[in-house]
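Re: weekly structure request thread

Next one in the queue (186 aa):
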Amino acid sequence: MRVRDMMFMSLFAAIIGVLAIFPPIPVPVIPVPVVAQTLGIMLAGGILGAKRAGLSVLLFVFLIAVGVPLLTGGRGGLGVLVGPTGGYILSWPIAAWIIGYLTEKNIHSLTYWKLVLITTFGGVIIVNIIGVTYLSILSNLPWGPTAVSALVFLPGDVLKALIASAVIIKINQVYPLIDRGKRVTY
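Done, posted below.
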């Protein structure tokens, strides 16, 4: 891995941490707040590509696990990962990788609306499926009602996907980090 790649991965881990400055918006029906950090997950995937985004967010989750207070509200530590928000946080590296992978595969035909679908799939649907499943198991609640309660996140998450897609398109036009010249294979 090149130093340049490590620098960008560290940069995006820091960006996700900086997004913790925005205060969490508590949701009355579920113990998981609305946070801005998922915007950083979407940005990492769409700008860095699958491998670098996944590793960048994995670094971020590792830092949380060892106690660095990088989450909204100054939280960190293993207790956060085994608490109600743990499934959402643990889904972030997967979501970043999926967004990066789909962006790489479509880099030659990437449009704003295609990118909105990609960030919504990876950053909203995948994160919520994993987060709701984890919360359902942890809380010993049926999956269906837990999923319905998580629908309150949908408007904010879709708004983040719209914003992230606009930023990703512009950055990929001006300073593309995903190599357009080579075919991405896995």
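The CA atoms of residues 17 and 70 lie 5 Å apart. The radius of gyration is 16 Å.
Next request, please.
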